[in-house]
Design a protein that fits this description.
By secondary structure, this protein is of the alpha/beta class. Strands 1-2-3-4-5-6-7-8-9 form a nine-stranded mixed beta sheet. Bound molecules: iron/sulfur cluster. The site of iron/sulfur cluster has 11 residues, from loops.
C-alpha cells in the first residue's frame, strides 16, 4: 500500500524522521539504531519523493534508507576499501595516479548512500578540512607540476556554498599546469535546487576545463528538476559525465541499466563509469558478482547506443587503482586464430597482419 503524504520540505537525517515518514518498520528500529550510530543518514526531499512505500524492494529506498544488513560485515570488507589513506601525502589529497589528484574539500554529502565506499570517512561529524590544511593541500598541488587534473570529491563538493566553491576553484585556477578540474557530485540529481546560476558560475575558471561527473544509479532519479539542473550546467558550457554503481536490487538487470544510461544521454551526460561495488563494510547485500556485471555489459553492448556504454570498472582493493573489468570480445580458436565475438554472441575470425 502506498502511504499518502506531502513531499518533505527538509532532508531526513534521523531515524525518527524516517519513522514518521513510514520509511522504516518499527520492528527494525533497534537494529537500525546500531546502523545509525555508525553511518550517517541523509535523504533529500527530491529522493524521498521518489520512494514507493508499497514496494519493499524500491530501488531508491535501497540506496538511501538504512538497512539492518549493514551490520553484517564480511571478512573481505575494509574501512578504506580503495586505499585512499595509503596515497594521501597531506590531508585532503589522494595522489594515486601520476597526472591527477583527488582534493577532498569536505566530508559532507547531500545524501548518504548505503553502499558508499567512503562511508567510514564521510558524514556530518567528520572533521572538515581546516584553512591551514586547505593551504597545505593546494601547496602540494602547486609543488607537483605533473598534476594535470584535479578531481574535487569528498564528500560532495557541491554542498559547499558557491562562495567557498568559487574560492577553491579560483585558487586551483592560479596553478598553471592544472588544466582540468573534475567535480564529482550527487547534488545535481539528489538535490537539484542547489544548482543555481551562482553555483554554475562558481564552477567556471578562466583557462581551465571543468567537467561535472554526476552520480546516478536509477533512471527514476532523473526527475524533471534533476534534468533542469543538469541542463543549467551543460548550457553553461560545462560537459557532464556520469558515474553509477552496480547495485544488487537497484540496477542489476539489463532493462534498468539501459533505461538509466539512456536517461543520462538524453540529458547530454555521457556515461563514464559503471563501478563494481567496493568492499565497504556492511555492503555485501548490495554487491553483485563480477561475472554478473560482465553479463550485464554484454547485454548493453549493441542493444543500446554506443553513447550509452559506460566503462565497467573495479577499484582494486588496497589502493591499486581502477581497472576495466568488462567482458573481452577477443579469443583464440583451437588453431590459434583470433576470434571476435559480435553482440549476438556470434564468433568471427579476424585475419593476422599481412
Ligand atoms: S554521495 Fe558519494 S561520497 Fe557521498 S555518500 Fe554517496 S557515494 Fe559516498
Amino acid at each position: 500500500m502506498t502511504v499518502a503524504r506531502n513531499i518533505a520540505s527538509k532532508t531526513f537525517r534521523r531515524l525518527s524522521d524516517l519513522d514518521q515518514a513510514a520509511l522504516i518498520r518499527a520492528e527494525k528500529r533497534a537494529a537500525l539504531e546500531q546502523v545509525a550510530a555508525r553511518y550517517a543518514i541523509a535523504i533529500t526531499p527530491a529522493m524521498e519523493a521518489l520512494i514507493d512505500r508499497g514496494d519493499p524492494n524500491d530501488p531508491i529506498a535501497r540506496q538511501f534508507v538504512p538497512d539492518a544488513a549493514e551490520l553484517d560485515v564480511t571478512p573481505q570488507e575494509r574501512a578504506d576499501p580503495i586505499g585512499d589513506h595509503a596515497h594521501s601525502p597531506v590531508a585532503g589529497i589522494v595522489h594515486r595516479y601520476p597526472d591527477r589528484v583527488l582534493l577532498k574539500l569536505t566530508h559532507v554529502c547531500a545524501v548518504y548512500c548505503r553502499f558508499c565506499f567512503r562511508r567510514e570517512m564521510v558524514g556530518p561529524d567528520a572533521e572538515p578540512l581546516t584553512a591551514a590544511q586547505l593551504d597545505a593541500a593546494l601547496g602540494y598541488i602547486a609543488a607537483h607540476p605533473d598534476i594535470w587534473e584535479v578531481v574535487l570529491t569528498g564528500g560532495d563538493p557541491l554542498v559547499l556554498s558557491p562562495r567557498r566553491l568559487r574560492e577553491a576553484m579560483t585558487r586551483l585556477g592560479a596553478i598553471g599546469y592544472v588544466k582540468v578540474i573534475r567535480v564529482h557530485s550527487r547534488v545535481p540529481i539528489a538535490d537539484p535546487a542547489r544548482i543555481t546560476d551562482e553555483m554554475v558560475a562558481a564552477l567556471k575558471v578562466e583557462g581551465k576545463a571543468t567537467y561535472v561527473v554526476a552520480h546516478a544509479n536509477h533512471a527514476r532519479e532523473m526527475t524533471a528538476a534533476a534534468r533542469a539542473a543538469c541542463a543549467r550546467i551543460v548550457d553553461a558550457g560545462i560537459p557532464m559525465l556520469s558515474q553509477s554503481v552496480l547495485l544488487a536490487g537497484v540496477n542489476d538487470d539489463p532493462q534498468t541499466l539501459a533505461a538509466l544510461m539512456r536517461a543520462l544521454v538524453e540529458c547530454r551526460i555521457k556515461p563514464y563509469y559503471l563501478h563494481h561495488g567496493d568492499l565497504a563494510p556492511g555492503t555485501a547485500h548490495l554487491r553483485t558478482s563480477l561475472e554478473h556485471g560482465q553479463a550485464l555489459m554484454r547485454q548493453l553492448r549493441g542493444r543500446v547506443s554506443g553513447l550509452c556504454q559506460p566503462t565497467y570498472v573495479l577499484d582494486i582493493p588496497g589502493g591499486h587503482g581502477k581497472s576495466p573489468v568488462g567482458p573481452c570480445y577477443l579469443s583464440r580458436d583451437d588453431e590459434g586464430r583470433t576470434q571476435i565475438e559480435d553482440f549476438n554472441g556470434g564468433r568471427h575470425c579476424y585475419p593476422p597482419p599481412s
